[in-house]
Design goal:
alpha/beta; TIM Barrel; 8-stranded parallel sheet; 45% helix; globular; binds zinc ion; TatD DNase; TatD-like; Metal_Hydrolase; DNase_TatD-rel_CS
């Protein structure tokens, strides 16, 4: 059965506390509609990974064009929200602007492996300041002042980790303990509505262009750099207790080794745009119970038999729907600029592969999104 269409004013996020935030013209107003709508609206979605800045650039449109993107509806299924990913330091401010201006845009901030050279201590600090909840900033600041030796140690660890490749996990400091005890704050406190900056990433490993890196020595050097930057961001996500978004391409063995060593098994994690060998998916689903796997429009490509076989092997309760727009527009729009509203083609394809109704895919993917991102 097809769910009801949400009016545009209700194209909004479902909060973790059974609430819906009205998206248009009614900031900060909440209504307790989540429970009743959730039972009747089975077809809506959050695009869990998109690059709005790149989409708008390709479309040659300013930020203000975003609401027009939201109006696009494919296969009669409206978009609820999206997670915009800023994956290089130069894009962070643009990303923040999108997140701050639009109620149904959430943000992830991190450094992509292809930009690993741009990662340094001040970038790590910027990511930390973006992701730290405002409501806790004062207490964290006070705590840092009182525990300056701890803060210094953290910075030293970060610097050492990046510069010398020391990948040892830092000892559990008071800071770590407190953050873990606090847990990630997913309540509707002001900072959530103001920033909606909720995750760290995408970060990871990408060896797909190794043939252009030069000789063996340069390949080794580039791989080591990517690994150090990846590990440092994993540790930062764990320390801040925020979801981690991982990019991995043609780097199965190193990805698995690093995650087994550095990522706690229950940490909320999105292994995004999965195109790696199915064995990596199987191993990580087993070892990391907090991890879900994101599939993009690539699953709809006619030649993507291997990827659809991976979809078949990943349980529905571990799947996230994502476009990775502007890339990989699904069939029948392959080759066009991919936008968040194209998720329904991916959902339909996953449903077909799984032999279930599309409503089931939307509903379970929505639950999985809440599980990983708390939204
Ligand atoms: Zn991406």
């Amino acid at each position: 059965m097809q769910g009801i269409m949400l009016p545009r004013t209700l194209l909004a996020r479902r909060g973790p506390s059974s609430r819906i935030t009205l998206a248009q013209g009614s900031k900060n107003r909440h209504v307790q509609l989540y429970s009743c709508l959730y039972s009747t609206v089975s077809r809506t979605y959050i695009d869990t990974h998109t690059h709005l800045d790149m989409i708008l650039k390709r479309l040659r449109q300013p930020h203000t064009h975003y609401p027009a993107l939201c109006k696009e509806v494919h296969l009669n299924t409206p978009m609820e929200a999206c997670i915009h990913v800023s994956c290089s330091p130069a894009t962070f401010e643009d990303g923040l602007r999108l997140v701050e201006n639009y109620d149904n845009v959430y943000g992830a901030f991190g450094v992509h492996p292809k930009s690993a050279k741009e990662y340094n201590l001040s970038v790590a600090k910027r990511i930390r300041s973006i992701l730290l909840p405002t409501s806790r900033e004062a207490s964290v600041h006070d705590r840092d002042m009182h525990n300056s030796h701890t803060a210094e140690n953290d910075e030293t660890n970060t610097k050492r980790s990046i510069e010398s490749g020391n990948n040892k996990q830092p000892k559990s400091s008071e800071d770590n303990t407190r953050t873990a005890k606090d847990g990630r704050d997913t309540s509707d406190k002001p900072f959530v509505r103001r920033y909606r900056a909720i995750a760290l990433g995408e970060c990871g490993l990408d060896y797909s262009q190794r043939d252009s890196w030069g000789g063996d020595e340069k390949i080794r050097h580039e791989k080591e750099l990517q690994k150090r930057v990846f590990i440092d961001q994993i540790q930062l996500a764990v320390k801040l207790n925020v979801p981690l978004v991982i990019h991995t391409r043609e780097a199965e063995d190193d990805t698995l080794e690093i995650l087994m060593r550095h990522l706690p098994s229950t940490h909320p994690t999105h292994l995004h745009c999965f195109t790696s060998h199915v064995s990596l998916a199987v191993a990580l689903l087993k070892s990391h119970t907090g991890l879900c796997i994101g599939f993009t429009g690539a699953v709809t490509f006619k030649s993507a038999h291997v990827l659809r076989n991976t979809v078949r092997k990943v349980p529905l309760n571990r799947i996230l729907l994502e476009t990775d727009g502007p890339f990989m527009a699904p069939e029948p729009h392959r080759g066009k600029t991919c936008v968040p509203s194209m998720i329904p083609y991916i959902a339909e394809c996953v449903a077909k592969v799984k032999g279930v109704d599309a409503s089931q895919v939307y509903e379970q993917a929505r639950i999985n999104t809440h599980k990983v991102y708390g939204i």
